[in-house]
Amino acid sequence: MVPELPEVEALAQHLRDHAVGRTVARVDVASMSVLKTASPPWTELHGRPVTGAVRRGKFLDLDCDGLHLVCHLARAGWLRWVDELSPVPPKPGRGPIALRVHLGGPGFDLTEAGTQKKLAVWVVSAPDEVPGIARLGPDAVDVDRDALATILAGRSERIKTLLTDQSALAGIGNAYSDEILHAAKVSPFATAGRLDDAAVERLHASMREILRDAVQRALRQDAARLKAEKRSGLRVHGRTGLPCPVCGDVVREVSFADRSMQYCATCQTGGRPLADRRLSRLLK
Q1: Which stretches make up the Formamidopyrimidine-DNA glycosylase catalytic domain (predicted)?
Q2: What CA–CA distance (Å, rounded) separates 152 from 163?
Q3: Which has more pLDDT, 103 or 258?
Q4: How many domains does the chain have?
Q5: Is the pLDDT of residue 283 over 60?
Q6: What tens digit of pLDDT does each residue of 80-103 get?
Q7: Angle separating helix axes 197-219 and 5-18, nearest 10 degrees
Q8: Does residue 182 sit in the same domain as residue 208?
Q9: Is 0.85 surpassed by the pTM of this model?
Q10: Domain that holds residue 67
């Protein structure tokens, strides 16, 4: 399950609790394709103390005394903390480990499952040297109602698209956008700039409540349980065919760009199922 704002925030907190104050003894790169920068080299991290760890949208930023190890976990990436790392470097091209950071006994692995390798790591002097961070919009968990209205004003895309556009709002992905829209009783296909004041009010309230609640739940879990905790808190996303917990109608699915999304027709679209245009094209 794709890490989004709450899970990345919890991983950052885990690193603040366990990595800050330690020194980077060694970095092992098992997959060179994961590195998106060549200068400075990752070996410049060796011997540097870890002085901070923060979340930037869905990016994780480990500050090593002014040199930043930034990662984006993409769809199948994860950070696995190990209290006692093996001193033997992981074998290149073998298994899910892409990069390992030794912190004098403990440390962590950046791993990626599946065949689509999109996990990305940068070593930079400043976080905004990472193109995705430089383009980030305001953090979704901090946006107030008026700021959200300003972001929506004049936008012609579907609200589902805007919520997951990191340059508009940072941190929300496919799962939490489904949850936010369901709680706000807004169709994922609604035009962002045409939402009335009441819909904007509901959207902001649901965004704030769902993200803050998810962050609090995630912070109470250790890193190994974060994915399971996320699944357990979802009401519509990933629940196609199950009853809506609000009205009892069946949760439906529709293809959208390169992903699928879930929604409740009774709660969100006046009882009308949304047309799956990708399926319609296949049936022609």
Answers
A1: 3-107
A2: 10
A3: 103
A4: 2
A5: no
A6: 999 999 999 998 877 899 999 999
A7: 30
A8: yes
A9: yes
A10: 5-134
